[in-house]
Sequence to fold (185 residues):
Amino acid sequence: MLEQLTQLVQQFGNDAVVKNNAVPNELNDNVMKETESSLLSGLQKMASDGNLEQLAGLFQGNNAGSASNPVVKQLIEQVSGNLGQKVGLDSQAANGVAANMIPQILGSLVGKAKDPNVKGFEVSDLVNAISGGSGNSNLMDMVSKYGGQFGLDQNNDGKVDMQDAMAAATKKGGLGGLFGKLFGK
Fold:
């Protein structure tokens, strides 16, 4: 997942950073690295702070690439602030870079996660990266809270729990299918 994130930052950073006269050329690499780092840490912070409903909304909706999405807005603000503090960009340039790149990156990430034709990119990879690789309890909390809405109650007992995860793991598609249902893939 981190490799895909790096590729997207490079792809969208070409116009937003490299071709942007407001960003001094000597800061291009630092701006892109900080954008990637701040974006990932922002998503991780949301997960650890319990903003799982907002994150689930990011994956369920079709507005992951829209600055009107509350998650996207929050990440734009965080990335913009970090670009000013850590890289030294003036606030106008930092806001411009973040407002340009974050919606594009998130829209592309969520689009790839939802697209069954994209190989080598699974929703579970994205969840694992967001949870910092150790978010099983947060993830299971989110599955328990929202799973029924997405048809994840595998044994029809009215709740989504570890039994449902185990049932899903034994079915075709396994846990990847379970995560796919959760995030709309």
Notes: DSSP finds nine helices and no strands in the chain. Confidence is low (pLDDT under 50) at residues 143-151. Residues 2-114 form one domain. The chain has two domains: 2-114, 133-182.
